[in-house]
Amino acid sequence: MEKKVTPNAISIIRSNPAPNPNGDIPELVVQVLDLKIKSTKNSSRYIFTANDGNLKLKGILPVNVESEVLSGNIQNLGLVRILDYSLNDIPYMPEKYLAVFKCEAVSPSIEVEVTSEADPDETRIAKRPKLETEPDVKSEGTGLAWKPKQEGAKEESTGGNLLNPKHEIVSKPAAQMVEEKHTNEGPAARLAMTRRVHSLVSLNLYQVHWMIKVRVTNKGGMRTYKNARGEGRVFNVELTDQDGTQIQATMFNEAAKKFYSKLEMGKVYYISKGTLKMANKQFNTIQHDYEIILNEYAEVEEAMNEESFIPETKFNFVPFDMLSSYVNGKDLVDIVGVVQSVSQTLSIRRKIDNEIIPKRDITVVDDTKNTVVVSLWNDLATGIGQELLDVADESPIVAIKSLKVGDFQGKLKIHSGIWLCQMLKMPSCDFVPPTLSGVSLSAISKSLILVNPNITQANKLRDWFDSEGKGASVKPVGYGVPSSERGGMKSMYSDRTLISHIISDPFMGEDKPVYQNIRVFVRFIKPDQSMWYRACKTCNKKVTDVLGSGFWCEWCQKSDKSCPLRYSMVMNVTDASGEAWVSTFNEEAKSIIGCSADELHQLKLQVNEFTMKPYLQANSFNSIWYQPCVAPFWQDHDQYVMKLKQATWVQYLLRVSVAIQEYNGERKQRMIVKAVAPLEYTAESQHLLEEISKGQV
């Protein structure tokens, strides 16, 4: 049968820009013109011009059409049948665009462009057939139904052959049509007939009306946030369609309250009237170009008895010996392992809001003979964590999705350096315990844990553990490996910037803090600043000195006889491009100065008023720090000042947060040190060689 285009197909599309999901889309065959690929930052799409011989319309083909184009089934001057579409407005464009969601190839190139001026017998335009029942069609109380054509029926010829002359229009009462449909079709078929569902891979920003059928494969907890516009609530879910494609849906405030209890884990839903936006990869770990925002007017309807059509949760397991490459990165990982031990529940006080939350650690091992500690929080710690504790003796297998990878550093616990020296028959000495390090995993709000899942990886791991894993010698992931080799320093070397780049942009950090990595020298630390504060032992908040009663903490509502000092200071740092003042707090300041705030406070108390007076009266620190020949003679003997001076002109890698703060009506940029690392010359040399090879140095 000769392939033809549908006459007036473009007019039909324009008259019905968003087909009704409850109705059938008419036969639409158009010719493809000007087919070419358009690449963006995140994806590539094929654009074309649809031609019906009379009119033309620019459009976009589905993302899954690439294989058809490469194979030659769809090409310039060829014919395609449009099965699903939407006609949308595009900002700053005078014409509407045809977004094709589903199509199929009809014919390769016919070598000529279809026009309406050629002879009807030679054109590729199919004329509408004469309907046999046309004189009998009535409009009063009747509907139109498609009826299969009887065998032996004669085709009507009106200047061209139909592409698919399989149906004719007959008149039937509307009530009869509805009755026949509900009588002859099952529940799933009836539901499919009344809904036009889009696949997740076909979603794009040009669509206005869409509906998806998805399963909730991951559900995060309800979270609160606070910004310049006030406080609010937010939660998100991960949705999976029948093709296995995933997308994240986020709900704020009223929508979060409305849908949090309605969207249940593992159930299938029809979702429509949402908004698509580009996925923010800082908060979205799903490999999809877009994410869905649902407001309180979105429609979410549960699909009954359709769980079998949607795939189960998919895992992308990472072997334990490969976890080091994910340390301090943005990517979340999935693991499967055998539970070795489960700790009791601990109570941890959260710094942000001083709330006490439960925590539980589990140690798991896999067939790489490495172990890793996974920290569970909140409901995971008290719920499934308790279940694991009850069956820990049976060595259950757990599959965990969406874990954050971090590292820890600690001191080797040795009771006494003198005791070690005696054991080694060495003279008594001041022994410094070595620093140990490793990789740790932490669950987040959307983490999912399955115990003894019936999946291939879990079954293989069980066979390994039963045969040789029980008696195998294992070790923690990343044990004894320097942080730079593990990947812990990787973030310090990536996205490196200069101080001048930060201070030259007055709007950096205006909406939210921006994190940057810089390599700097510590230039100056002001000795006369308030470098510390008395802190509560429990929450680290500032305490009030109560005469005769110790110190009072407003957060914890309790008093204590003694409270330690914690650093809160500023220092001047510099690189080749400029200098800046940065705020530094306790842990980072201890790494730079080399002692605790209490120890530095004791050194300062040893300085009397006579020795400090000329120093504090200096108009500029340059006269003291950069002209040692004219500096007061006491400077070399002041241990407090010398301690600060020893910390200067040492090079560090800093990770700083940049934010805009307003003080006395003046907006200023503030940089806070979030992480400090000494410069490792081997890693730094490797970084410079890589930058030179890229032509950036």
UniProtKB/TrEMBL annotation:
GO cellular component terms, A-Z: nucleus
Pfam families in the record: Rep-A_N, Rep_fac-A_C, REPA_OB_2, tRNA_anti-codon
Gene3D superfamilies attached to this UniProt entry: Nucleic acid-binding proteins
Residue ranges occupied by any Replication protein A OB domain in the UniProt entry: 328-411
Biological process annotations from GO: DNA recombination; DNA repair; DNA replication
Bias kind Basic and acidic residues: ranges: 121-139, 148-157
Entry GO MF terms: DNA binding; zinc ion binding
Transmembrane intervals: none
Domain of life: Eukaryota
Domain Replication factor-A protein 1 N-terminal: 5-107
Residues annotated as domain Replication factor A C-terminal: 515-622
Matching InterPro entries: Euk_RPA1_DBD_C, NA-bd_OB-fold, NA-bd_OB_tRNA, Rep_factor-A_C, Rep_factor-A_N, REPA_OB_2
Function: Component of the replication protein A complex (RPA) required for DNA recombination, repair and replication. The activity of RPA is mediated by single-stranded DNA binding and protein interactions. Probably involved in repair of double-strand DNA breaks (DSBs) induced by genotoxic stresses.
Subunit structure: Heterotrimer of RPA1, RPA2 and RPA3 (canonical replication protein A complex).
PANTHER family noted in UniProt: OS03G0429900 PROTEIN
Name this protein carries in UniProt: Replication protein A subunit
